[in-house]
Amino acid sequence: MPYVSRKQCVSGVHQLLGSTLRDARRERQGRIVGIDQTREHPVIDVIWQGQPRAERIIITCDQLRDLVRASLARDAAARAKGAAVTDADAGQTSDKEPVLLAEQRRA
């Protein structure tokens, strides 16, 4: 049986996998390729554009919850917009708007 900690995990994080993340402070974008909630603080793995390897970023549970909410809201807006698309536009695809990351690092 796997170990389950006493802390409450954020649900719906699978929604973030493959999402584009934008770091406004460093003016860069990347893709979320992993999420680890087994540690004291959640960690997301991001491959930034132009980087060969993923970077592990420590975030708070609240930040992870906010990322999930933003992703769900963005997807709901895209579905609503897609419902209004005419048959002529149905063949076109567009990238999702990236989720904004407010990075927090330990001192």
Task: Please describe what this structure looks like.
The protein is 21% helix and 23% strand. With 107 residues, it is of the alpha+beta class. Strands 4-3-2-1-5 form a five-stranded mixed sheet. It is globular, with a radius of gyration of 16 Å. The N and C termini lie far apart (36 Å). The model is unreliable at 90-94 (pLDDT under 50).
- Please tell me how large the radius of gyration is: 16 Å
Strand content: 15-25%
Could you tell me the mean pLDDT?
79
Strand count, sense and barrel status of the largest sheet are: 5 strands, mixed
Q: What's the total number of strands?
A: 5
Q: Which structural category fits the helices and strands?
A: alpha+beta
Write the layout of secondary structure elements.
Layout: E1 20-23, E2 28-36, E3 43-48, E4 55-58, H1 61-83, E5 99-100
Keyword list:
107 residues; alpha+beta; five-stranded mixed beta sheet; globular
Question: Can you describe this structure in just a few lines?
Answer:
A hairpin with a 6-residue loop joins β3 (43-48) and β4. The chain is 21% helix and 23% strand.
